[in-house]
Write the structure tokens for this entry.
Amino acid sequence: MACKGEQINDYLLPSIQGEKIDCFALTEPGAGSDANAIKTRAVRDGDDFVLNGSKHFISHAGHADFAIVFAVTDTYEHNGRQRNAVTSFLVDRNTPGMTIRRGPKCVSNRGYHTFEMFFDDCRVPASKVLGEVGKGWEVANAWLTAGRVMVAANCVGQAQRALDVSLQWAADRKQFGQPIGTYQGVSFKLADMATQIRAAELLTLHTAWKMDQGTMTDGEAGMAKLFASEVLGRAADEAVQIFGGMGLMNEGPVERIWRNARIERIWEGTSEIQRHIISRELLRPLLR
Ligand SMILES: Cc1cc2nc3c(=O)[nH]c(=O)nc-3n(C[C@H](O)[C@H](O)[C@H](O)COP(=O)(O)OP(=O)(O)OC[C@H]3O[C@@H](n4cnc5c(N)ncnc54)[C@H](O)[C@@H]3O)c2cc1C
């Protein structure tokens, strides 16, 4: 993806260096998994594009210095289906015509907020097109695919924490005169958690290594995200079981892991969408 020099210096590098906050604005009320259904439009008018539409569930939009906004700039037909040609734009905070409002509260990651964004004849200079006009899916795909490996790594870390606190609890908590970890009903859960976490970690490391080599496919990123997020879901649930009632109390360490784990199978593409990506990649060479 080609970026203009000023975009790298003014937006992308400061964002990577932590000097500016960005947000990624793709999802809309009618377009979640089916991103092609986005309705936000951008129409060329002289040196500008004029954006109209809305987004929701956009992480940190209220604190961001700029947003990467995806909008339809053209339509075409592909295999009898109407497809959208999408363009991505760098939109500065406080650009006239763009308003941002706090979205609903999420049960996962309570300190993390999502926002709704509204574009009402919002003028964005053509120089702020990120990549090329009509090539916004390339930008979205590059972001989401790398993001999936990041989610996988995050899940491995959370699952390991669930295992660590469960091990300690199983060793300390006594019932019927013995540490509960001495009962197979508990110790086998710990064994399964540890085994699955090790597998998720190795898959994630291998995928990250392939990303560094430039050989990672979309399906491989999907496998890491799918597997690690599902391992975390199981580990968090088992941790609650091992802690018993204390697992659901917000004084303990496990309730938060369990709540936060839930989002990981949804954002950056749901588990079902990862399975689509993986199976499509496997079948593509065989289907005519
Ligand atoms: C806390 C949070 C933060 C987010 N941050 C951002 C952000 O910063 N930027 C952004 O653009 N988006 C963001 N999102 C949006 C997120 O990416 C979407 O929620 C996600 O892609 C799923 O879309 P949806 O919620 O509309 O669910 P839907 O697409 O409506 O899916 C509902 C269910 O149907 C299933 N489903 C849908 N289609 C299929 C199919 N073809 N086959 C099988 N099953 C299917 C899904 O897997 C899911 O189980 C965020 C969401 C949340 C909750």
